[in-house]
Write a structure and sequence with these properties.
Aminopeptidase; seven-stranded mixed sheet
């Protein structure tokens, strides 16, 4: 992962993030929910980055974004402090440890800064590489969630993983 820095994403990153999304649109399509063309605009990218309910980090190599990780669905109740995590990495830098580093960074932020208790992530059943990322980052496989997300036109089963604050203390 030499030279790659994981940092907070800001609205100023919208042009570079839009470039990342466009560069990887075809590559990531089999792994992500179908999105309308309005998702693939600079304006919608800036709007997502400005959304305070979504905590987003980017992996940057020079001035180029090569990955992103987001914490979303944050739930704060005295007995339920949870969130979900999603990530992707540029097609051309796969296998360099960037995803694992990003996931670890986001988990640390969720526990140390957001003071959450549990982070959950899911992968398509056949996405063994992504499952390995979560395992290397300390997540535990907790089961299968049938027909969790509509991807490539059909509801797809996902392998769910979780990590709690106790797992990293």
């Amino acid at each position: 992962m030499s030279g790659v820095v994981v940092r907070w994403a800001s609205v100023d990153d919208a042009p570079a993030m839009f470039d990342y999304i466009e560069r990887n649109r075809e590559f990531l399509a089999p792994f992500e929910p179908a999105r309308g063309d309005d998702h693939f605009t600079l304006q919608s990218t800036a709007t997502r980055l400005a959304d305070e309910a979504r905590l987003e980090f980017v992996a940057v190599d020079g001035d180029r974004i090569v990955g992103q990780v987001a914490i979303s669905n944050v739930a704060r109740a005295p007995v339920y402090l949870n969130c979900t995590l999603g990530y992707s990495v540029d097609e051309h830098v796969q296998g360099r440890g960037i995803a694992t580093s990003m996931v670890r960074h986001a988990v640390h932020h969720a526990f140390a800064v957001e003071r959450l208790h549990r982070v959950e992530a899911g992968t398509l059943v056949h996405n063994v590489a992504s499952q390995r990322v979560l395992e290397k980052a300390g997540f535990t496989r907790i089961g299968i969630s049938p027909r969790l997300v509509k991807i490539a036109g059909s509801w797809q089963d996902h392998v769910l993983f979780a990590i709690t604050r106790e797992d990293v203390d």
